[in-house]
Description:
The chain contains 8 helices and 4 strands, in the order E-E-H-H-H-E-H-H-H-H-H-E. The protein is globular, with a radius of gyration of 24 Å. Helix 3 (106-129) packs antiparallel against helix 4 (153-180) and helix 4 packs across helix 7 (219-238). The chain has 309 residues and is mainly α. A hairpin with a 2-residue loop joins strand 1 and strand 2 (6-7). Strands 1-2 form a two-stranded antiparallel sheet. It has a two-stranded antiparallel ribbon with strand order 3-4. The longest helix has 36 residues, at 259-294.
Amino acid sequence: MCKHGVLVPTEASDPAIKKVCKPAMLGRIWQASRRGLTLDHTPSHHFACSQWQTGHRPTASYIVYRWLFFLSALSIGLTSFACQRLPPLYDGPKVELNYFKWFIYFTNWGYMLIVLQAALALAVVHKYRNQKTYCIPCDDEDIPLPRRQKTPFLCRLYWLVHNIATDLAFVITLVYWTLVHDPKMHEINALNILVHGCNSLAMLLELAVTAHPIQAMHALFGAGAGLMYGIFSAFYWAVGGTDRVGLPAIYPALDWNKPGSAFGFVALCAVVMMFAHAIATVLAILRMKLAAKLRPSGSHLDKFTLPTH
């Protein structure tokens, strides 16, 4: 029989009933997938706290960490923009350096997202630092709770950008050092290592310190960002855009004069992005499990809190 839209198999199951119940089951699967893509998490103060602290408000040490991370990321990003120059071994036609072409590179898209997620995390921390809350233990029984509060927009935006920045950082590091780096065009210096290597280390540090989870379904956000860059690069090529030395392709592997290989490269990056997110999800789960074992029993990080306003 079919109860609540779900088929309960019996020995005498009617094929007609199965046919009716199948769309209902598919509908429930679709609803579950939609819920997995939502940016909703309770309690929302997890976005403002470290996994390793006690209490439900950001600690002074975590606030200091957030400021140091933001200022460091911002300084590296500004330095990357200000210190642009032509490749030392470039021997082609003379070209004038255009600083605004900094914005066409995938590496810099990824780094801007790291800076943005750091700024949003800082805003979330200060929002919850000054917010008065009631702390209600989750393990208390028979406590009537009001309707669950929706996750604030600021927390949702931070979570979205954090997810995308993490996935892009891992993929940028992998793709740059395996497919893009050319010793004749790219020198290995401190700035190059910072934006193509330390970007991933920075997001690994974020995964280790923050308290909010990583949802597996959110991999689609990072893959979507990668596809968006692919569309941008195709449009940029179509309108006659060039890289910093005047070549028609931003990256050799993303040359739209060869659409087959360009499409393949974009698809490959999207798939790698999904795997990168899977790794981030596993690391976040391991972090939470380890913290649960090490955290004192009196910790209130996982308590359910309600805003007083």
